[in-house]
Request: fold
Amino acid sequence: MSASLPYHFNLIAAARATMIEHGFSPDFPAEAKAEVVVIEAQPALPAAPEAKDLRSLLWSSVDNDTSKDLDQIEWAEQLPDGRIRVLVGVADVDARVKKGSALDKHAASETTSVYTGVSVFPMLPTELSEGITSLNENEDRVAVVVEMCVDESGTASDGKAYRALVRNRAQLAYPSVGAWLEGTGPAPEKVAANAELVAQLKLQDAAAQRMAGGRFQHGALDLETIETRPVMLDDEAVEIKRLEKSRSTSLIEEFMVAANGVVARMYEEGGIASIRRIVRTPKRWDRIVEVAAGLGTTLPAVPDSKALNDFLLAQKQKDPDHFPDLSLAVVKLMGPGEYVLVKPNEVSPGHFGLAVQDYTHSTAPNRRFPDVVTQRILKAFLAKETQPYTADELGAIAARCTLMEDSARKVEREMQKRIAAVVLHPHIGQTYRAIVTGVNQYGTFVRTLDPHVDGKLVQGGKGLDVGDKVTVKLISTNPEKGFIDFAAQA
Reply:
């Protein structure tokens, strides 16, 4: 029997309950709300007498088409020596949210905005994160600018940072910019109408392609884990769409990695304690070696990101259908990222997946608390002022941020399952193409290819193993628990 009616399950209420269950406080305290009222009454531009006026530059932003909390904007310039000068402007959240304020204390507890697919639980009130501190189009803002020069090998040098006045001239979105850069779609309307913006984005893309090539040469991992988002209609999830990576997402990722590296190196040179974002050398490298061996590739016994990436690139060419699942397995075996305190003259453990030794989080202060902390450290350094945090305080902040980021991942994962169960409920009885993603003592698990959802084989499937392709029939869903059950078809 095929269910034809939508399943009415309150996903927004479920998201809120899941947030609370995992230690978040979705509501802002009264003191924080009162501070927002005071901030809204302040001048549109906070005092920043030392800031450079860079509002005449053709800044633009590229983000998800649903994003309202804009953290960064970009601009590039071709230099006579062949290098490309890149500027990344980051929202100066600290100019509004002061250390020790009620807003700051709430942000320090939550540590991150959580995106559940059906609702956003912001770290800072939307009046700030989507308004006053967001780098919105055609609004004058104060920012912290990170500058670097990228040579033809992708190496970034001459890194520096300073405060500046900026103005976002074009708010753009990943899908349309990506399709245009790749030649599979027309230029977005704002781009098509501005020849200077066309040249600007192509120059930024050229710089990003150099950077990506340089990092891959040093062993950065080309992973392709699949992300999805629900299509909502009147607060009901009606469809699941896959988020595609493109030249535009790569452009922003490369600029952010490079900007974060510039800031980290400034801290090293200045002898300043800071919070770093790391992914340690995989402790389960032996298992990664086994996975590669099962696919006919011998990896070194000692962790080697370059060898691992060469294997991944070869597998991507050989078996693109299974590559997202291989990527996910490698990500899990590498282990999650974490925040750590790095004291002056200490060597950072580095970021194995990005193939960078110097990495901090500094480019998303509207949505991540470590970035706010990093911004305060950087501003104090630039102004030659006393550092705002002790090493002990930074260590405690790093531990809290790691804990809450893990909690945020759990919230988002649970909500993805519930959303999928709601979307698929009207399609009980239909069949789907799927790939086996796991076989263990708890059962056999599959991922359908379109839409991209995970579920369990509760009937049939004997003898199946990870990687096998199978046709499955949807037999039931349970949105409350996030269960999706399939039967294998002969």
Summary: The first strand starts at residue 52 and ends at 53.
